[in-house]
Amino acid sequence: MTFMYCYISLFLFVSNSVVEAVQNSGFNSAWASSTFAASEEDGDALYDAMQAINSESGYWCSAGSHTTAQLVTWTGTLETRQLVQGVKISWSYAPGEFKILSSSDGSNYEEVACWRTSSRLDGSYEENVMFAEPRAAVAITIVMRSPRSYGYFGINSAMVISEASPLMIVAGPTSSTGDHCIVSTRRGEVIVEPCLGAIAAGDGREIFIADDQGHLSNVAGDRCIVLADGSTLDGGRIVMQDCASASAANDGRHKWQSQPDGQLQLANLGGYCLHLSARDSTKSLSVRKCQDTNHNDSNTFVLTRVPEFDPNRAENARAAAGLFTSSAQRLGRLLADVRAAVAEFGTCEKATSVARFDTRFSGSLLSNTLSRAATSRGPALKAIVAIMPQLGVDMDHVHKLMHDCDHLMSDIRKD
Fold this sequence. Notes:
- By secondary structure, this protein is α+β, with helices and mostly antiparallel strands.
- It has three domains: 22-163, Sandwich (Jelly Rolls); 167-305, Trefoil (Trefoil (Acidic Fibroblast Growth Factor, subunit A)), CATH 2.80.10; 311-414, no CATH class.
- 25% of the residues lie in helices and 33% in strands.
- The protein is built from eight helices and 20 strands.
- Strands 1, 2, 3, 4, 5, 6, 7 and 8 form an eight-stranded antiparallel β-sheet that branches. The chain has a four-stranded antiparallel β-sheet with strand order 11-10-9-20. Strands 16-17-18-19 form a four-stranded antiparallel β-sheet.
- Strand 10 and strand 11 (190-194) form a beta hairpin.
- The protein is flat.
């Protein structure tokens, strides 16, 4: 018998961000090839690489006493791949020379800014290093050499300068049925539906791009989330509209701003914020005065940064799911044939040969794997299991099939 495994990986990377076309995005993690060891006089002070990903913390400092030719590196990683245009560096101890490498996969790096001398003579300052062209990157490495008189290399903070990243707009708190996302429909509606279902559709309905004009446009077309006619009467209507015509109205119907408390505000329209109705069958959106809706989970929206939209991924997932279903159906037919053969053979010698069938792999392996994934605390594994039905895979049937396979093999072995 042939068993087919189909694993579908979902990666949702959460990053709260301000809506703008070019963003200064912080790194998620960092490490360095050299780090200063704090002394007792420093108390609890830290100088490790992670200190440079938060401008409000301390700073990263190398061990010092470096030779002129010695290379010291600081590497920052992003939560998800972004289209990076450059790097903003706040030096605490600027090097004599440095260059920048980028990686699109976290393993292979290429030079995106060649060796250059520091732009100022003083050791502590900020500078932006722009690339010749945007690069898709999940990691950035700053390579330093030629220390100055102080003998150290140090970074207060480092951020990437990136183009507006694709994002999902997750509405309110997670419910018993999972996260819900704002999506665009082909009919020009803006609705809320389970994020997993939207992802499984594979048409980009749940992915938006934010620009410096406040547009939230869907990647599937040049349409933006707009307050219809700019009217707030009875909560107004939230629709998808051509971005250019929405801007031409010049009444702020399209200009959204993400607030620190999680609300999405119409910046130029009298302090109105997006509001989600009670989670009913319609899950409608409207606007209300921001001060009337704060402290209410139905009015909070998390901008969740995601990888760039690629419709081929959904097509591949659907093809794999179809293959999985076909394999399960074939396995069901083979299982029925084996049952019939066992019934016909009874306890004769041929049944013994069937019992010698290599049963080291049993259905319980896949069944137990799926069960563990369903109950796992890991969100990725839960997503894998939850999205399978969205792709047309009957997981109850698969579980039953594996159980029946185990049961039949057990009966054969007993005979």
